[in-house]
Design goal:
Number of domains: 3
Structural class: alpha+beta
Largest sheet: 5 strands, mixed
CATH architecture of the largest domain: Orthogonal Bundle
CATH topology of the largest domain: Poly(a)-polymerase, middle domain
CATH class of the largest domain: Mainly Alpha
Shape: globular
Number of strands: 14
Length: about 425
């Protein structure tokens, strides 16, 4: 298939069919009715559902925002209960709630009915301040109302934009660069919507991204005179990303501040290959083939599930990878986070000879003493060294620094 055929096919795969859309709509309407009986403040649907950019997933999350007049009012949201839904409090700069309703769609005859195969729809109820302008925001979520309205206006101008955004989200999700969380450091949903809106289509966006080799600054609303003024005026902590996209609704914010250089480079590699040889495979999440690894570890953290837990698990994975790389030949590694408090570490390693470095060969007495202590010695870079044999992975794991594990919030590490 050529690229046009691939994208057309992927849009049909990513989009909800009528039956799926109707169920999601009815569930959202039912939940909001229940919510309005409990909350008198203004309620609005946000996220992908409101913008028409929602893509098929096994577990659908629907963002619902409640606009409170003050922070004190928003704090009362924690007491909210709705019959028939499982409630969970998610802590953050401002706590929000998740309400889950399980339904059994597993016997549904429609083979495309994948979205509800697990029967989960999660409503995320987020408190925001009812502000008249973005500059009065006390939290980034307070800007959501303005973000939704901005993207909806862009979609009205470009009738194909919603489908193009779906392509961008599916591509980034499959290539592990979707999400502004610290353990992903990728494109946020709103960031993707803005980028594809700016370039006009998914294909044009990819073509522009693969050409980026220095910091790219995009200011669609011309809040600043030029690129240099953007870099001078924005907070320095928000400028480390390879792309600076000035939020059209709030000039002081870089929408892509969370995007890391490493994530962007990996994204560019995949984008280049896709443009040269388009395939539906680039939109499919890649499962890890466990046969490719000879060491698989289950790790658990005691930190709050979500971004915090994922970040801690990733930090320890990187530490472990460095330690392994020093003592073994590390051929391949991978990390997966289950969005709760557990992660899985994958390593393909080969044991190698370890050695200890001794004194310079010119220090004859010291060398003689060293050789008395060690039987198998050799000279490397002007120093006498001794072979210690191969380190066993089980011994390596036993000797891991428990203090470091505790500092990183890791409470369990077991061979799978």
């Amino acid at each position: 298939m050529n690229i046009k055929e691939v994208l057309e096919k992927q849009i049909s795969l990513s989009s909800l069919n009528k039956e799926e859309a109707d169920i999601l709509k009815k569930e959202a309407e039912s939940f909001i009715r229940a919510l309005k009986k409990k909350i008198k403040s203004e309620i609005f649907i946000g996220g992908s559902l409101a913008k028409g950019t929602i893509v098929r997933k096994q577990v659908q999350d629907v963002d619902i925002f409640i606009r409170f007049k003050s922070e004190d009012q928003s704090k009362k949201l924690g007491k909210l209960k709705i019959k028939g839904y499982i409630k969970k409090v998610v802590h953050g700069s401002r706590d929000y709630l998740q309400f889950e309703k399980s339904r059994d769609f597993s016997s549904h005859k429609n083979p495309r009915f994948l979205m509800f195969k697990k029967g989960k729809i999660v409503f995320e109820v987020v408190p925001v301040l009812k502000i008249s302008s973005p500059g009065k925001a006390g939290n980034v979520t307070d800007l959501s109302y303005f973000h939704v309205n901005y993207i909806k206006k862009q979609i009205k101008k470009n009738k194909n934009l919603a489908d193009e955004i779906k392509l961008g989200k599916a591509f980034c999700f499959a290539n592990e660069c979707y999400g502004a969380e610290s353990f992903i450091k990728g494109f946020s949903g709103y960031g993707l919507e803005l980028l594809i809106s700016y370039y006009g289509s998914f294909k044009k966006w990819l073509e522009a991204m693969v050409k980026v080799n220095e910091k790219l600054v995009i200011d669609p609303k011309k809040h600043y005179k030029n690129k240099q003024e953007v870099l001078n005026e924005l907070n320095e902590s928000k400028l480390s990303s390879p792309i600076v996209f000035v939020d059209p609704t709030f000039k002081e914010r870089n929408v892509l501040a969370a995007l890391s250089k490493e994530t962007f480079i990996e994204f560019q590699k995949q984008a280049k290959v896709f443009l040269n040889k388009p395939s539906l495979d680039f939109f499919k999440a890649r499962d890890i083939d466990e046969k490719d690894f000879n060491l698989i570890l289950n790790a658990k953290t005691n930190r709050q599930e979500g971004d915090i837990a994922g970040t801690k698990l990733l930090k320890f994975f990187n530490y472990l990878k460095r330690e392994i790389n020093e003592k073994f030949e590390l051929k391949k590694s991978a990390f997966r986070y289950d969005n709760k408090k557990k992660g899985k570490y994958y390593f393909n390693i080969k044991e190698k000879e370890s050695f200890i470095q001794g004194p310079p060969i010119k220090l004859k007495i010291a060398v003689a003493n060293f050789k008395k202590e060690h039987k198998k010695t050799f000279v490397k870079k002007g120093k006498v060294c001794a072979k210690l044999g191969k380190i066993k992975i089980k011994d390596f794991l036993k000797k891991l620094d428990k203090k470091i594990m505790k500092e990183m919030g890791i409470v369990s590490l077991k061979v799978w």
